[in-house]
Amino acid sequence: MYSLFRDLAIIILSAKFFGLVARKCKAPQVVGEIIAGLLIGPCLLNLVQISDSISIFAEIGVVMLMFTTRPTFWFELGPDYWGYGMGCWMARPMDMAKLRSRIIRDPKPMEKLTKALCGQTEFTLGGDTYKRPKAGAPSELLAPWFQMKTISITHEEKLTEELFSRDVVDRIKTGYTFLLPYYDYFLTLPSDPEPETLK
Predict the structure, then answer these.
(1) Looking at residue 199, what is its pLDDT?
(2) What is the average per-residue pLDDT within 176-182?
(3) How far is CA 171 from CA 82, 85, 120, in A?
(4) Beta-carbon contacts of residue 187 (< 8 Å; ≥ 6 apart)
(5) Are 136 and 146 contacting, i.e. CB atoms less than 8 angstroms apart?
(6) Who wins on pLDDT, 61 or 10?
(7) How many angstroms separate the CA atoms of 91 and 79, rounded?
(8) Is the C-alpha dihedral spanning 41, 46, 48, 49 positive or negative?
(9) Which of 27, 36, 127, 156 is deepest in the core (most CB within 10 A)?
(10) What torsion do the CA atoms of 112, 149, 78, 161 make, to the nearest 10 degrees?
(11) For 98, how many CA atoms within 13 A lie in the half-sphere containing its CB?
């Protein structure tokens, strides 16, 4: 039991340390965490012994990473509908503050993405919104992004024969290709500097 707690302490402390180093180097925190895993694992220093308990914690960590602040692509099939898209389901308030700060600092990339989103009919912007409006959007075009607590860019429709045809594969591929720039934009948010107003 002692070795499990020792191993967990080494994992958590090294992941936190290398995550902070990565952020200081303007890289995503997860890059530092991966480097920590390579260093302390059996590949290099072998400080942590692989056991069933550690493997379970690792699996839980991967699931939590997938469904926290990182954007994810998804496909969903319900009893009478289907949908797909990309979203940040459990975005932290800090990451949403970083989004607003990034938009204020450099609105052009998000203006381009927003114009592309408004100029098509496959996807809509959705997600939970703040009860009180957030001010400070550089333009009316960008105001909806300032109201979001979570972000999803989604397509949803009733089940039709198209879902069971080959055409849907090309449609979804085209849709995910369209969503990739949004994914890239949101993926780097955690490595942005903390907004001045929150320091």
Answers:
(1) 47
(2) 95
(3) 13, 12, 13
(4) 28, 70, 71
(5) yes
(6) 10
(7) 28
(8) positive
(9) 36
(10) -10
(11) 16
- Structure token digits, residue 63: 């699931």
Token pair of 162, please?
């198209």
Distance, in Å, from the CA atom of 56 to the CA atom of 51, rounded to the nearest integer, reads 9
Q: What 3-state class would DSSP assign to 170?
A: helix
Residue 18 has pLDDT above 90, yes or no: no
Tokens at 168, concatenated: 């849907």
**DSSP run (H or E) holding 52:** helix 52-66
Token pair for residue 170?
């090309």
Residues 74-98: pLDDT tens digits?
888 878 889 999 988 778 888 889 9
Average per-residue pLDDT for the chain: 85
Residue 11 CA to residue 50 CA, distance in Å, equals 12
* 72 CB-near residues (< 8 Å, 6+ apart): 66, 86, 87, 88, 89
